Hints:
There is one protein chain. The chain has helices spanning 15-29, 59-67, 69-82, and strands at residues 2-9, 35-43, 46-56, 85-91. With 95 residues, the protein is an alpha+beta fold. Strands 2-3-1-4 form a four-stranded antiparallel beta sheet, covered by helices on one side. α1 packs antiparallel against α3.
Amino acid sequence: MISFTVRMRFDDGDRTALEEILRNLAAASRQEPGCTYFLPHFVEGEPATVLIYEQYKDEAALEHHRASPHFKQYASGGLYQLMKERSLEALHAVS
């Protein structure tokens, strides 16, 4: 299982556009057979910060996600064009 968070910062005025992009990206990503969880959040108290929690069955599922048309449209062509900063945290589940 591959789990991670992506934290991105945007301009305050981009929130409406971000909501639409995130809804579309999440809906399409959740349909991928190897995606087990995809949940975007706005960070409370930081209206221009987005945190996405993602979980994939394996590396192949993650690569499939990153190569998908919806990722190219909504992440590469949407979020990445608007973001000011981005960080990724890989997670290790305690079971």
